[in-house]
Specification:
The structure holds two protein chains of two kinds. Chain A is 37% helix and 23% strand. Chain A contains five helices and six strands, in the order αααββαββββα. A six-stranded antiparallel beta sheet of chain A has the order 1-2-3-4-5-6, with helices on both faces. In chain A, a hairpin with a 2-residue loop joins strand 1 and strand 2. By secondary structure, chain B is mainly alpha-helical. Chain B is 52% helix and 7% strand. Chain B contains 23 helices and eight strands. In chain B, strand 7 and strand 8 form a beta hairpin. In chain B, helix 4 packs across helix 5 and helix 21 crosses helix 23. The longest helix of chain B is centred in the middle third of the chain and has 23 residues. Classes of the chains: A alpha+beta, B mainly alpha.
């Protein structure tokens, strides 16, 4: 994961981003839960504490009230998520990256028909994020 | 005028109160004006700042969904969406399509981004075929000849070879297999996923690289951005100028697009156009002050490119009046959008067309997410073959700079694509044909090398399935039928083997023997 974060910092100039505040995290988790979505996985929260929302080429990892409001995880899920088991964590032109709480894994889902294109185990967040960010 | 205290006066009072409430609400949330305005909502939509207009659009999408039980507001929202879409040169299309199989979608995705995800080591057993895993771990005693690796007759490679980008790397894959003394019969047994792993093994810089690039120059997506910048850079700059963007951003972003095919403004270094005192001082401190560098003179473009390539772009970074660096993240990021959904690529006569330039369009990230992909939904149900998608009325839109039609740039890429189409069509195959061929190859291998025997009933069921599929395929569009003729001729030998096998199966079914 460390190597991955270094890559992201190099690719996306993340140093200027403000770190995620715990209070905001709690508010976001409550908001997601209120909408019926599962809670964010622990590894992803740890990642958000370092990189709160990442904009890649044609892709993004969502964050909690990040500077780029388009990447806000709560409003993005409200707009695009009708599931109770999954929470959207990122996207590109083809796929959504979701965490599936019932299967306890990360999934790449086709944006159009929701088909599972790939899956990553719960402790392989770096693989899942690489897949959606294309680096 | 109504008398004080009369029912008319009370009604009038309630109406005024409601109006004031609405006005107050609109003042707080300007996007609500589009929702409340039933007459001039299109004009209102275009008058609002972009963020508010997008919020209004998102709200209309919510109201238009089936889950909104209020029929009146649902149909009202749908009507407004239709009119607003039309004003932007868009329309919503609903399709009940035959969606592509997952492997095909992954291949299209790999082709457009020029990168492949490495399979997690623990999932290799699950995702890779036993044939591939076994043969990769069991090298031969000597190097086979290059020509022994018969990619042309590999059912799974045929799926990749439809794309120019993969055809280009065929040689590298053969070299890798030869170098590692891998049994040449592997290529006939490999699944599409096995090939993605082989590409990762061949092109990886090290074993920890999670996403491996296989393109030597640039990906389909990057090339598209480069082409658009080269062909329409002037028009794009004009659109951005109209929007009041800083000239330094415009130049820097277009330069990044031309040179790297990059549109992600968050990693963009915005550079000064002319030498400033600050720039000259910074260059002097780094011993990079050359003759002719003077305040007010234009910074030579090759020098800008050199500094960026050397990671020293900050020396000429553009600054505001307070000396603060201009950040790319302050400006819109652009993204490449597939105008027609890849998952619905089944309607294309050749799946390679999905990544052609005429199917791509450069759009701002916010419009991409909220309008063009505004209807995308994650659900818990089964895969939905019914899709609702926002598409352009004019097929030739290649750049969308904003919500106005005048922010769009058109380019007819169809003019020059016939040559490429001809090349790609030679390699066209259908997924089902290839997978059937692969299954047959694997079975023959099992019989020869693993001494496996099959249950006749299962085999017959397989045969029946084959005929059902043929029947279904016969109903497909005319173009598909024509293409199948081409692909059928490719494997005459395999067909012969299959026919013999089917005859044998039918015979063995009658006497109930298991062979």
């Amino acid at each position: 994961m460390e190597k991955f974060i270094k890559t992201i910092q190099k690719e996306c100039a993340l140093k200027k981003q403000k770190p995620l505040e715990t209070a905001k995290l709690i508010v976001a988790q409550k908001a997601l839960s209120k909408e019926g979505y599962p809670l964010l996985p622990a590894d992803f929260i740890d990642f958000l504490k370092i990189c709160n929302g990442v904009k890649g080429e044609d892709s993004a990892v969502l964050g909690i009230e990040p500077e780029d409001r388009l990447l806000d995880i709560v409003s993005f899920n409200k707009a695009h998520n009708a599931s109770e088991n999954k929470v959207i964590l990122g996207y590109d032109d083809f796929c959504f990256l979701v965490f599936d709480a019932s299967k306890q894994c990360y999934l790449l889902l086709d944006r159009e028909d929701g088909e599972e294109l790939d899956d990553f185990s719960k402790d392989s967040l770096a693989y899942a994020l690489s897949a959606i960010l294309h680096f | 005028m109504a008398k004080k205290g009369s029912k008319y006066a009370r009604k009038h009072f309630v109406e005024i109160k409601e109006e004031k409430n609405i006005e107050r609400e609109i003042a707080q949330k300007p996007h609500l004006e589009v929702i409340y305005d039933d007459v001039t909502f299109v004009e209102t939509f275009h008058r609002l700042p972009k963020e508010d207009a997008l919020n209004a659009y998102a709200m209309l999408i919510e109201l238009a969904k089936e889950k909104n039980k209020n029929k009146e507001s649902r149909s009202d929202a749908r009507y407004k969406l239709e009119k607003i879409n039309k004003s932007m040169g868009l329309y919503v299309v609903e399709r009940d399509g035959e969606h592509l199989p997952k492997e095909e979608k992954l291949i299209v995705r790999m082709d457009v981004y020029g990168r492949i995800d490495r399979i997690e080591p623990r999932f290799k057993e699950q995702k890779l075929s036993p044939y591939y895993r076994e043969l990769m771990q069991r090298p031969l005693g000597k190097h086979p000849k290059m020509e022994e690796y018969d990619f042309e007759n590999s059912p799974s490679w045929k799926l990749y070879a439809r794309f120019q980008g993969f055809r280009k790397i065929e040689k590298e894959l053969k070299v890798y297999l030869r170098q590692h003394k891998i049994d040449p019969q592997i290529v006939k047994l490999m699944t599409p996923r096995d090939f993605s792993d082989l590409i990762v093994q061949t092109f990886q810089k090290d074993e920890t690289e999670r996403r491996v690039s296989f393109v030597s120059n640039c990906s389909v997506k990057d090339q598209f951005v480069k082409d658009i910048a080269a062909m329409h850079g002037g028009q794009i700059a004009e659109i951005w100028r109209k929007k009041g963007y800083d000239e330094r951003y415009i130049r820097s972003q277009l330069n990044a697009m031309r040179r790297f095919g990059s549109t992600n403004s968050s990693k963009l270094i915005i550079t000064e156009i002319y030498f400033t005192d600050r720039v000259l001082a910074d260059l002097k401190a780094e011993n990079l002050l050359y003759e002719g560098f003077e305040k007010g003179k234009k910074i030579p473009q090759h020098f800008v490119d050199y500094l960026i390539d050397e990671g020293m772009g900050d020396l000429i970074a553009a600054r505001d009046e307070h000396g603060k660096k201009l950040l790319g993240s302050q400006f819109a990021s652009y993204e490449v959008h597939h105008k027609y959904a890849v998952s619905e690529g089944g309607y294309l006569t050749n799946i390679a067309y999905s990544n052609y330039r005429n199917n791509l369009c450069l759009v701002p990230a916010d419009i991409h997410a909220k309008i063009l992909h505004g209807n995308d939904q994650v659900s818990d149900g089964k895969n939905d073959t019914h899709s609702r998608r926002t598409e352009f009325i004019d097929d030739d839109v290649c750049f969308m700079g904003g919500l106005e039609k005048s922010d769009q740039i058109l380019h007819d890429f169809n003019k020059n694509k016939s040559k490429r189409m001809k090349k790609d069509d030679v390699h066209n195959v259908t997924y089902d044909d290839c997978m059937r061929e692969l299954a047959l190859n694997q079975r023959l291998y099992d019989e020869r090398h693993r001494k496996v025997r099959f249950n006749v009933d299962e085999e017959v069921a397989e045969v029946n399935k084959f005929y059902q599929n043929r029947k279904r395929f016969a109903k497909k569009v005319k173009a598909d039928r024509r293409l199948r003729k081409i692909t059928n001729t490719a494997s005459a030998n395999e067909k012969k083997i299959m026919r013999a096998k089917l005859n044998m199966l039918m015979k063995s079914k009658t006497d109930g023997k298991i062979y």
